[in-house]
Amino acid sequence: MLMDSKDNRKPQLDKNKSFLQSVGHALEGIKRLLLEERNFRIDLVVAIIVLTFAIVMKISINEWLWLFAAFFSVIGSEVLNTVVENVVDLIVGHHFDALAKRAKDVAAGGVLLSALFAVIIGMLIFVPRFIALLN
Ligand SMILES: Nc1ncnc2c1ncn2[C@@H]1O[C@H](COP(=O)(O)OP(=O)(O)OP(=O)(O)O)[C@@H](O)[C@H]1O
Fold this sequence. Notes:
Elements: H1 19-36, H2 38-56, H3 61-92, H4 98-134
Bound molecules: adenosine-5'-triphosphate (ATP).
Adenosine-5'-triphosphate (ATP) is lined by residues 39, 81, 85, 92, 96-97, 100-101, 104-105, 108.
């Protein structure tokens, strides 16, 4: 099991005793995503750039909604991909397995599809504005 060598707390195996404890573990999960998932960090950098453009270009509330839908679609599929990778590695370890490959490839395909969705949303919102700026 993956454990932080600096973590001296007693390992927890039973259910969370409070809402705060649940939130603490969820934040630990987000920290793992930030520290260990390069693609997740790239998504965040791209999101910050896009959000900056959105603020500068004063996009409409509807466009903001689509932008957030695209953002959370990518983040959601990235999280699912990470879960699949970790669970598959936990089960098969470091050796080739056709089912492990299928599960990981399908999860990666989900990320690609949601990224495509985000690119389409981004283009629909920003391309007309860039063209207007050039004219
Ligand atoms: N145990 C395995 N058996 C067969 N193929 C595997 C296995 N582990 C990984 N692969 C193949 O390698 C690819 C990359 O593996 P993995 O998703 O673990 O790497 P990653 O660099 O973390 O990927 P990502 O870029 O999605 O974060 C998988 O999509 C799959 O095709």
